[in-house]
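go over this:
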Amino acid sequence: MTSIQAAPSADGVWTNLRLAPGASASDAPALDDAAIVVDQGQITYVGERRAMPPSPAGTPQHDGRDALVTPGLVDCHTHLVYGGQRASEFAMRLAGAGYEDIAKAGGGIVSSVRATRAASEDELYALARPRLQALLDEGVCAVEIKSGYGLALEYERKQLRVARRLGRELGVDVRTTFLGAHALPPEYAGRSGDYIALVCQQMLPALAAERLVDAVDVFCERIGFSLTETEAVFKAAQGLNLPVKLHAEQLSEMGGSKLAASYGALSCDHVEHLSAEGIAAMKASGTVAVLLPGAFYFLRDTQLPPIQALRDAGVPMAVATDHNPGTSPALSLLLMLNMASTLFRLTVPEALAGVTHHAARALGLQKTHGALAVGRPANFVLWALRDAAELVYWLGQRPACSIVRQGRLITPSGASQ
């Protein structure tokens, strides 16, 4: 793939376009014969071609070739930076091994922590770059990357530094999330209170001071951290003016979503066991429900998120890959669109909003990403498709596309145009 530095500018007038439904606003209809004007990497016009203001002589002209246009996609929940992989324990589960069997064999999150700690920053970067590239090739223009496989200051720092580097070198907006409260590290076995104190008093302040943290997350669950421990982390984040989010209600109803909403959380993620009380709290706070069908599928879960209740309450629903080595080794956001529709029964408009408008909101990027609007950075995708439903419909086919990311025209690696 052409590097972002070497990629040609997308400045100029783009015509012969069809805007997908919801491209310019969540309720915007489809628009044929549309135009987009980009100047110095910013959108200065989007709408009907016939209403486009005249351009100065010599303005570059781009023929969209009747492409379907969407905003750049947003993957709002990933764990892309880690060492090793866990295919062997996946095989063990398929052969009938239980959680304890895998743990005794050195598997589980401990194995990812061990491999991440052992890897250098350059090694972690080399592992994560192709994972991120796979997402970018499908039109992703903003992505969240969490820490949480270091579980000690020096290793969490290493993950977050790699995430920042990925954003710089691949020319994509990366939002970093500190997930130090992901699991209890082996050296703190039986001392979760001491570990949370370390997270709040040393790790988070240090990483925030180094400008490595955009948001703070916690795994609030019976096998993770309690409500009391979660709130301690939220208070520490609040004291540093950092927004929070939460791995909430994945395995049981812990009341985490209500707590997160009380702190104005950007999102609550997974939410298979989300209660009516939690939904009401999220609605009141504007918190996004992030659906993660890859983990649901990979774990062969049967507890569906309360989609209709979320829909009825008007809680925005985002969709993300949750790429991680243990429970969702997914590297296709388009596949997640199909899974969110087939497994969770999202409609096509809901699914597309889930990786644009609502996903951007889940990262606090709603003013710059997720929609095509004047004054926003030029992040959009031109698809060789007739119908927006095809983005949700196809399984295993990467539609031909051209990507404008950060005002640069990108051709995906391996794309057949």
In short: The longest strand covers residues 61-71.
